[in-house]
Amino acid sequence: MSRAMSQPPLKIGVLIGSVRPGRFADKVSQWFLSEIGRRDDMETHVIDLSEPALAGELKLTLERSAAPDDAPTLAERIGGLDGFVVVTPEYNHGYPASLKLAIDYVYREWRAKPVGFVSYGGMAGGQRAVEQLRQVFAELHAVTLRDTVSFHMAWEQFDDEGRPHDTDGTSKAASVLLDQLAWWGLTLREGRAARPYDG
């Protein structure tokens, strides 16, 4: 999708929610980052909860200590973005505890921004995790997108190079999600600029 020259690209955060060693999130997120990288209307910012700085910040939060001051805080990173795509697995019919902690650590910075989902798991493809996350983000005044990308029996859906076997189908699903994200991202960015959101 091409953007009007007068519009700066949307700053989109890709939030990787799993922190497990050997996580499958790396394959899913790298594929999705390649899809979003084809667009000129979006600027991608990866927020990987396994990053040492973020992991340390969230750990200190649990200990009720001050966050490190040598890197932007999670709230600052979230606050500077126009929209998000959460890459999440499904663990025991839910989403990871690390993701819940990160979402709850930030509050006002989520408001009036769109959130999309790329999920993966077993037979349900992570959809139960997504449905729970919709409720959480609604409480934070964020707008969740209707269409998602999900990988059922995810470990069977990718080749050894990290590419989906169904390249056409997955690319089409990603395009639908990103088109919705672009519409909501631009609309809500303009809305926040015209009338700060105080809901």
What this model shows, in words?
By secondary structure, this protein is α/β, with parallel strands linked by helices. Helices cover 40% and strands 17% of the residues. The chain contains 6 helices and 6 strands. Strands 1, 2, 3, 4, 5 and 6 form a 6-stranded parallel beta sheet that branches. The chain is globular and about 45 Å long. The two termini are 32 Å apart. Residues 62-68 have low confidence and may be disordered.
Helix content: 25-40%
Per DSSP E runs of 2 or more residues, the count of β-strands stands at: 6
Separate helix tally? 6
Cα gyration radius (Å): 16 Å
Instruction: Assign the structural class, choosing from mainly alpha, mainly beta, alpha/beta, alpha+beta, or little secondary structure.
Output: alpha/beta
Contiguous low-pLDDT stretches (5 residues minimum) are 62-68
Residues in β-strands, percent: 15-25%
Shape: globular
Spatial gap, N to C terminus: 32 Å
In terms of quaternary structure, what is this?
A: single chain
Organism: Streptomyces shaanxiensis
InterPro entries: Flavoprotein-like_sf, FMN_Rdtase-like_dom, NAD(P)H-dep_reductase
Protein name: NAD(P)H-dependent oxidoreductase
Domain NADPH-dependent FMN reductase-like: 11-155
List the main descriptive attributes of the protein structure presented here.
single chain, 199 residues, alpha/beta, 6 helices, 6 strands
